[in-house]
Amino acid sequence: MGDETEENPLNGVHFVAGTPNAYIQEPGLLRTAGEWIARYGKRIFIVTGTKSWNQAGEALSQSLDEAEVAYEVAPYRGECSYAEVARLQELVGPGVELIVGVGAGKVIDTAKKLSNDMNIPLVTIPTLAAQCAAVTNLSVMYTDEGVYVDFPVFYRNSLLTLVDTELLAAAPVRYLVAGIGDTIAKWYEATASATGKPHNLPTIGGLQAAKLCFDTLIAHSKQAVADAREGKASDALAQVIDAVILFSGIVGGLGEDNCRSAAAHAVHNGLTAIPDTHHAYHGEKVAYGILVQLALENRPTAEIAELLDFYKEIGLPLKLRELGIERELTPQDWDNMAKVALSPDGTMGNMPFAVTEESVIEAIRRVELW
């Protein structure tokens, strides 16, 4: 077996992990979450964050108690890092039947990596509609300081994903907007990643799921954001939540390496090398990365203008200053950002043409002039 196969055993394999075993979305679902979880296991280990548990913990705990599910709660320390996963692994006691991730993307990715490392099935309960982590078979890993490292891909998906639209409607709207940015990227990135590759049926399905995400968000995002501002678990919000969490994950789940992320997420990774951006959300940086990808691809001005109008309508960032960079970047900043964006462990290699550090920097400078 060659080195390349050892590094990525999925290369050349017709592998599909399209969806969780079960995905349920309805208002007030936390109140019956214990019943659903008890169908799969009676002793669970919960990985969560402080804000996430404040949001979901009371209703979930009551539901688990009613279903006679024994649980231990382990707060994570803020980053999905290899060191953090190793720390949590030491806390998982014997007899645990399920790892349960309750929170946003980094919490769930941490639980996901823990689940796969320990060979214990996973349940995901997203507390934000900010990305598709709850249904994807990979974890995006960072250093303990928040700089992107890589994304290991797993051979299985979550056993159960529970999405409470009331919970998500009550969350800060900025997270929803960020989730829309992260999901809009699926269409641009999947089409780039699939270019020049064999289009088997799973790849075609992944591309169609990406287009469905795009069309759904263009049609419903404005209303969904307005409803979320009022805390309403509306039909428009439910449509957007399914696009952001479920169908966004289906894109890569079906298409796998043919429908992976490309320049937009690579630029996100590069931006993590600039400390000024660490308060910007994942989807906000990805949304900016989409603009950089469009510049790299020399997309038509009219197409770019339509997307910029959509960004303005729902509040996605258009400039570096909206991501926290309110100063002139130094040559070292540009170099660090470009190097991480082009990391061989990143996704820039999924672009259908060669991208250099110089071309990434030039594309960012072009976006800043739009």
The average pLDDT is: 92
- What is the overall shape? globular
Give the N-terminus to C-terminus distance in angstroms. 49 Å
Figure out the total of helices. Answer: 14
How much helical structure, as a percent, in the residues?
A: 40-55%
CATH superfamily of the largest domain: Dehydroquinate synthase-like - alpha domain
Strand content: 5-15%
Describe the structure.
- The protein is of the alpha/beta class and 370 residues long.
- The chain folds into 2 domains: 3-171, Rossmann fold, CATH 3.40.50; 174-369, Dehydroquinate synthase-like - alpha domain (Dehydroquinate synthase-like, alpha domain).
- The protein has 14 helices and 8 strands.
- The strands form 2 sheets. A 6-stranded parallel β-sheet has the order 1-8-5-4-2-3.
- Helix 3 (50-66) links the parallel strand 2 and strand 3.
- Helix 10 crosses helix 11 (282-296).
- It is globular.
- InterPro entries: ADH_Fe/GldA, ADH_Fe_CS, Glycerol_DH.
- Keywords: Metal-binding, NAD, Oxidoreductase, Zinc.
SSE layout and pairing:
Layout: H1 3-7, E1 23-26, H2 33-38, E2 43-48, H3 50-66, E3 70-75, H4 82-89, E4 98-103, H5 105-118, E5 122-126, E6 141-142, E7 148-150, E8 160-164, H6 165-169, H7 173-194, H8 201-229, H9 235-255, H10 263-271, H11 282-296, H12 301-314, H13 331-341, H14 357-369
Parallel strand pairs: 1-8, 2-3, 2-4, 4-5, 5-8
Antiparallel strand pairs: 6-7
Helix pairs in contact: 4-5, 7-8, 7-9, 7-11, 8-9, 10-11, 10-13, 11-14, 13-14
